[in-house]
Specification:
single chain, mainly alpha, 45% helix, elongated, 171 residues
Length: 171
């Protein structure tokens, strides 16, 4: 192999990346209810999981093609209202649910705990989807993209705006 082969290999990887991005764009278009030329957010989060997966696919593709080595994303901004999770079967927003998860001695039943568990399970499923995607990418040395990656997942969900015992995951 000569010195010019590296440039050709990089061009091939970039072409593959662009083709993969177009594939993800088509999937986004299939679930997005906006019409071209206007901005109108979807009226519900019914397709939120699929849109999140499409975003994660873009991140994996960018890393697989060495377009980037760092990615940061937040599922939702902290505080205030939202998001809601109608596709999980209830209209409550995450902020309110977390405020209602209090010790039983305060008189609140387990309904909010059950909702919070379903919400956190949804987020964990998205995280697992991302990790699985990275594990499906084989690098030139035969390992996976995941083998060369550090992932830190964090949450600002704690008890009553306290910053103690906030959950983190490092993979």
């Amino acid at each position: 192999t000569g010195p010019g082969d590296a440039g050709a290999h990089r061009a091939d990887r970039l072409a593959e990346h662009l083709e993969s991005l177009r594939s993800v764009e088509k999937r986004i278009d299939a679930v997005n209810s906006c019409s071209p030329g206007s901005y109108a957010p979807p009226s519900s989060y019914a397709n939120e999981g699929e849109l999140r997966k499409a975003f994660l696919d873009i991140v994996v593709l960018a890393m697989a093609c060495d377009v980037t080595r760092v990615a940061t994303f937040a599922w939702h901004r902290a505080g205030a209202v939202g998001p809601t999770f109608p596709w999980l079967g209830f209209p409550d927003d995450l902020h309110e649910v977390t405020h209602q998860v209090v010790p039983e001695s305060y008189g609140v039943g387990t309904q909010y705990r059950d909702k919070l568990i379903r919400i956190l399970a949804f987020f964990a499923e998205q995280h697992a989807y991302f990790i699985d995607g990275m594990k499906r990418v084989t690098t030139p040395d035969g390992s996976t993209l995941f083998d060369h990656t550090v992932i830190r997942q964090g949450s600002d969900i704690s008890w009553n705006h306290d910053n103690a015992n906030i959950p983190y995951l490092v993979a």
